Amino acid sequence: MAGHHLAKALAIVSLTVTLSSAAVRPRSCPQILASWSWFSSRGIPPDFIMSGLNGSAENLHKKARTSPYPGSKVERSPVPHEKVSWLVEWPEYKPVEYTAASVLAQPTWADPPVNERSFCPKFNEKDGLVERRSQNGLYEVENGRPRNPAGRTGLVGRGLLGRWGPNHAADPILTRWKKDSKGNKVIHPVSGRNILQFVAIKRKDCGEWAIPGGMVDPGEKISTTLKREFSEEAMNSLQKSRAEIQELEKQLHMLFSQEHFVVYKGYVYDPRNTDNAWIETEAVNYHDETGEVMDHLPLEAGDDAKKVKWLDINDKLKLYASHSQFIQLVAEKRGAHWSEDVYPTSLDSGLESRVNQRPSNECGWMSKELRTPTEQDR
């Protein structure tokens, strides 16, 4: 038995060394650190990244294996769930290469091609103003390209994503209690819990309802991104006059001074993800308990949004990417209605345990903290 355990340990060490040495540095960029992550190489994140959320890892990761790739006619190479993990040997794996023309045009938000001699990114580090660190820990870099910590997707390159490796986003979830004509909170007749509403947009690209979020600009604070994306998509600030924008700024200040907490930080199961580029987000819930601010919110769709409105939160919602899971966490934290199924009596204590503990594997996590922004946040 002892010999068996020793052999197993040696095998793991050998595997670690092999995978580490497999990450090759491009000759033109000798300073690139080729990193190895036990979690990414073992394909752990599909089971743990969205810990605490409903839905199997298999179903969640399907969103990054769907065809055609968004905004194109490109078909991904099929990847069965049992071969998603990078640890599963698959010599026949020949993923399709695709990077959108809009990305190859090298706008300010996009990296150059990874083989361009002047491009020497510092993966797993803060690279100037560009954040190349993952919220899920170290990711592997192989042949100069970062490797998706959640596993194979059937497509290499960047697709629609600008950055090699993690592409950081921010999702503001603004909520209020649903009220009747007399101003009383509406209680769901089955669960007996108050119904919570959130501001949702209908995306122009796919027609799905979503949280009005977007990408973090280099050097930008998350709090700034949250305000900017909400104002552009849910308040149409890009089409406002200077006087209207000044008035919007006052409203935004009140909105984002509301009680808030971080719902989730980490990898997102997004249909735009590839083997070499993926979305990570920080979802933050801003809640107006009395409705004095959000009841008078001048919603108007703009930028990437086709429509905007308040949606009732429940388990029937079908939202973009991982947004349904974020919304569920908000409902649970607020003690609001989510499902017509009978809530277990241990729900609240179980939730407290999940919210208070950040998973030891450094994957996606929830924060219990409820607070108002400090001056530094603003």
TrEMBL record:
Region: Disordered, residue numbers: 348-378
Reactions this protein catalyses: ADP-D-ribose + H2O = D-ribose 5-phosphate + AMP + 2 H(+)
Chain intervals with Basic and acidic residues compositional bias: 368-378
Keywords, alphabetical: Coiled coil, Signal
SUPFAM superfamilies: Nudix
Gene3D superfamilies attached to this UniProt entry: Nucleoside Triphosphate Pyrophosphohydrolase (3.90.79.10)
One Pfam family per UniProt: NUDT9_N
GO molecular function: ADP-ribose diphosphatase activity
Residues of the signal peptide: 1-22
Top EC class of this enzyme: hydrolase
Superkingdom of the source species: Eukaryota
A single Gene Ontology CC term: mitochondrion
Coiled coil ranges: 228-258
Domain Nudix hydrolase intervals: 177-333
EC number: 3.6.1.13
PANTHER family xrefs: ADP-RIBOSE PYROPHOSPHATASE, MITOCHONDRIAL, NUDIX HYDROLASE
Entry's family note: Belongs to the Nudix hydrolase family. NudF subfamily.
Function, in words: Hydrolyzes ADP-ribose (ADPR) to AMP and ribose 5'-phosphate.
Quaternary structure (record): Monomer. Interacts with GLOD4.
Name listed for the protein in its UniProt record: ADP-ribose pyrophosphatase, mitochondrial
Gene source species: Pteropus alecto (Black flying fox)
